[in-house]
Amino acid sequence: MVEPLHLRDLAWAVTTCCEIVLLFYLWNRRRYSTHPVLFLYVVAVVVQSALAMLVYEEWGYSTRAYWVVAWGTQMLVICARGWAVFELAHRSLGAYRGIWALAWRVLFSVGAVVLAYGLLFAHGQWTTVVMNAGRGMELSIAAIIVTLLLFTRYYRVPIAPLDRSLAIGFCLYSCFYVANFSLFEPHLSSRAYFWNFLDISAFLASLLLWIVAVRRYPGDSRAEQRITISSEVYGQLSENLNLRLHLLNEHLAELLRPGGPRP
Amino acid sequence: MTLSLFVFVLLAVTLVGILAWTGRAPRRKPWTADQIFAALSSERHSLRLPAIVQALQPEDVAFLVERGHRKLRARLVRERRQIALRYLNQLQEDFEMLLEASRLLAVLSPEVIAMHEWERLKLSVRFSVCCAYLRWKLRLGLEPWRTFDALSTMAGSMALRVETATARMGERAAVGAAFSSTLQGRRG
């Protein structure tokens, strides 16, 4: 039977190879011009893997040095991931100035609230605090992506297939990280290897999704800037639409009133 | 597992669920800009239906029961329920058309008023819940008469108010023309 440690090392090696493949495709398809932050994020992930591998070779897995390097760089990588998600959001909604003005505030608020919730549970030893903070950030990223996709769906804003695939990859990994960490948290000391293996495997799945998406879809299908009506016209029409919606709602509410309609 | 950890797992699973839902194709095809402007400027079906509804008062049925026409009464009950359901469908269609128009408006605006958008979201949730409740109430035959009576009495006054609002929108038809052509470009 293959030991968990070896399985994890194998998954780690395969993941690093996939990271390099993704970086190659991003470079090859010139995605660094359309998705510069994503490109930087993948570079950061490759550098993190290389750094962690060097420290692992030198001092081993269960050492403080490895832990500091792994989690220190992990925080930076999560921040880069958050930035890449923001880039995706801007690519999807940035062309629609009105919606973007509303969306970034909503996305920021959702992210901040979820992050604050995640950080509420970050207490105890400083190692636990860092890991809990990581979970809070991942949950925040997932919430931001889901809110972004809800926005695009509500306003029927077309989102490029590449951007959608990238967003799905980010979201699935973040959600899996949160669930995985939460399920294993009480047994982290005894099941660290298995937890780490599952985490790496989930990231590998996201990497594969991104590689396929970068290979398959064009990345420069960003919507052009369109402004056709003034804020004043929008305000007036919007107010009238709300009035009509309100009237229809009132109509329905009257039907539901126990005593029947008012004269 | 503690409650907080359970909440984290639940949140993650919920987010994945919503993510999957956002990937589904919308139930209905989006309206084109022309359809929206035609609908906004013309009389809606829901404004015409009340006239049909008005003609069918509950007293008719009471009269039939007294005369012993039970089968006819049952048929009338069924038909009236169908009419009430149709009326609800039309109301919902009107509502969705307005929401669609507001979305298009927001997409083309340089500045969206968050309060307007929030208000619309609240209204649409409220409308959906009330509509589903009323529809089931009618299907299950719970107090259909009172509902039906309410429909007919209310319809006239509401039609007038909605028409007034429509007229106000019509005043901005000039804006709409330019708007429509731009939207056409976007949708087409």
Write structural notes for this entry.
The complex is a heterodimer of chains A (263) and B (188). Chain A has helices at 4-28, 31-34, 36-59, 64-93, 97-120, 126-154, 161-184, 188-216, 231-256. Chain A has 263 residues and is mainly α. Chain B is mainly alpha-helical and 188 residues long. In chain B, 82% of the residues lie in helices and 0% in strands. Chain B contains eight helices and no strands. Chain B has helices at residues 3-22, 33-41, 45-54, 58-67, 70-107, 114-139, 144-170, 173-187. The relative contact order of chain B is 0.14. Mean pLDDT of chain B is 68; it is low at 152-162 and 182-188. At the A-B interface, α5, α6, α7 and α9 of A face α1, α5, α6, α7 and α8 of B.
How many E strands of chain B?
0
Radius of gyration of chain A: 23 Å
Rg of chain B over CA atoms, rounded to whole Å, is: 22 Å
Residues in helix, % of chain B: over 70%
Give the helix/strand layout.
The complex is a heterodimer of chains A (263) and B (188).
Chain A: H1 4-28, H2 31-34, H3 36-59, H4 64-93, H5 97-120, H6 126-154, H7 161-184, H8 188-216, H9 231-256
Chain B: H1 3-22, H2 33-41, H3 45-54, H4 58-67, H5 70-107, H6 114-139, H7 144-170, H8 173-187
Summarize this entry quickly.
Chain A is mostly helical.
Labels describing this entry:
heterodimer, A: mainly alpha, 9 helices, 0% strand, globular, disordered C terminus, B: 188 residues, mainly alpha, 8 helices
